[in-house]
Amino acid sequence: MDAPQVQLVRTSDGGSLRVFSYGSGPGAVFAAGSLTRTLLYGRFASRLSATMPVHVYDRRGRGGSSPQPPDYSMDTEVNDLKAVLDATGSRVVLGHSYGGGIALEAALRLPVSRVGVYDPAVNIDGCLPTQTLPELVAAAAKGDHVGAVMVFSREMDPVLARVPLPDPAARALVWAASRLTREGHSWKEMVPSLAHEITLLDGTHAAADRYAGIRVPLLLLAGAHSPWYFRTIASGLAASLPGSTSMVIPRAGHSALNHPSEKILGLFRRFLQQPA
């Protein structure tokens, strides 16, 4: 995998975003999910860059970008995405999980040409599991990133959700991951942003037909092994957007873009190569 070019892009409110560019020139801008290091999408972006350049940016509160502002909202995310689109001359938006929700919002608000998402996290009719949000927010406020990740994982991660571990054992497992894995090392930095993002999702119970105003080509993918609510979201969106390309990917989980299969890459490539 070739090393990306790195640049800082200024935002409309005076912040900065670190952007990793796989290829040069206009192409696609990729918005990352919550609690996920941007560089984990490097393999996906690098391989897709043979079709068109892909620019992946650190969203606020992670990596080399500015912290989330006190008045953080979806407006922050859309304005930041627009800054990267403008800086790279791009008009295509891709996104995963929370970043997929940002991409769908951009399709409603920005002059983009097409949007492709995998497991987009939009709280259609309140389907996302946010019941333990107060515990997550409380842990984040105390600086207990291990506790916050444990709460989040039990709600959002199908692996930990299936394991009936008592709290001490689950905490020990998450603590070990936070010390022994590169991904875990970044949790402490990202947990405050995670709390704000889940709070925002919890307060938004949109109907699927809210997105019926999207007028650009849309690729809508969900993993067969992802948590069930991502398939619910995808089916609701597809019903409201009959012109979209929608598919459930067999044997794919929520983190499938970190190690993308040829099936997933092929779907994105064909979508990006289609005439506008």
UniProtKB/TrEMBL annotation:
Annotated AB hydrolase-1 domain residues: 41-262
Any matching Pfam family: Abhydrolase_6
Record-linked InterPro entries: AB_hydrolase_1, AB_hydrolase_fold, Carboxylesterase_BioH
GO function terms (MF aspect): hydrolase activity
Superkingdom field: Bacteria
Keyword annotations: Hydrolase
Keyword Protein transport set for record: no
Entry protein name: Alpha/beta hydrolase
